[in-house]
Amino acid sequence: MTIRMLGRHLREGCKNLLRNGWMTFASISAVAITLLILGATLVIALNAQQLSNYVAGQLQVNAYLKQNVSSAQAQQITAEVKALPGVSSVRYVPKQQGFKDLQQRLGKDYQDVLQGFSNKNPLPDKIVVQAADPKQTLSIAQKIRALPGVDRVDDGKQVVDKLFRFLDLVRNIGVVFVVGLVVMAMFLISNTIKITIFSRRREIEIMKLVGATNWFIRWPFLTEGIIIGVVGAVLPFAIIAYAYHSVYARLGGTFLAVAFPLIPTAQLAQKLALVMFGLGIVIGVWGGIMSVRKFLKI
Asked: 44-47 — which CB contacts under 8 Å span 24+ positions?
């Protein structure tokens, strides 16, 4: 297709949109309202995914060493833990450092109580381990238990199992909800475009009878669908992006109730633009093709 022919189809598509003003307004309104609901749902779903990743990333294994383990042996055990597959980070905490951390956490109110243990530290050496994949936390903890010199391992098994079941449930519900909204958006928008094209079925029949090819007839309607999809996505995208930016700035980039980092505005805007404009264009083109098809069978 030449640039001149493409320009002709674009002009015809714009003229048809202006000529059928109310139907165009109805189509763009349907696109905008549907994509506004979908966009708001995506904002919640993406931040829910961010929350699940953040919470899962905080999981760690605390391995407590036996009291008779020397410093050299503790370093050797730490090296063995680092060598385990799936381990992301390992931090060795000597008993002296653990006692200082305990004093800081308890504060001045318990300094007198802890003072009696300053000469005989009852705390064991500890190794703090994080997995590259949070779902491997329990399997890594099981391997650490088998290492010589390890007294006990705190992996929070009950909490971890419940957490991943909950996160999987939230993720599945979010996916089903978003997919349902996408299907609803495709149904509403394509039907609106079909109504617009149905009102001009006579025009299509005449063009077909005078010898116009199928694609020559299709292109103006495809252009209309693309314009409707893009224009219908601009307003909800602008509203959602501005509202999210305001909330993000007001909260300082973190959610108050949980104190986890929200998705940055620029990153969220890129994902929203890709989904909303892409979906608007795809549905517009799909609706145009499916709607014109039956009127081309003359």
From this structure: 44/174, 45/174, 45/175, 45/177, 45/178, 46/263, 46/268, 46/271, 47/255, 47/262, 47/263
Neighbours of 22 (CB within 10 A): 8
**Contact, 228 vs 28, CB < 8 A?**
yes
d(CA 14, CA 3): 16
Q: C-alpha angle 257/260/263, rounded to 5°? A: 120
SS3 state of residue 92: strand
45 and 192 in a common domain: yes
- Site of tokens 């190794």: 127
Residue 179 lies in a domain: yes
Structurally, the chain folds into a number of domains equal to 2
C-alpha span between 173 and 121 (Å, rounded): 49
CB atoms within 10 A of CB 133: 11
pTM above 0.85, yes or no: no
Distances (CA, A) of 86 to 77, 136, 201, 254: 16, 7, 63, 29
Burial class for 291, CB neighbours closer than 10 Å (0-12, 13-18, 19+): buried
DSSP-derived secondary structure letter, 212: -
The verdict on 139 and 272 lying in the same domain is no
Report angle CA 252, 170, 155 to the nearest 5 degrees: 85
Residues 33, 168 within the same domain: yes
Its domain, for residue 237, covers 3-56+162-296
List, for residues 196-243, the tens digit of each pLDDT value.
667 667 777 777 777 777 777 777 777 777 787 788 888 889 999 999
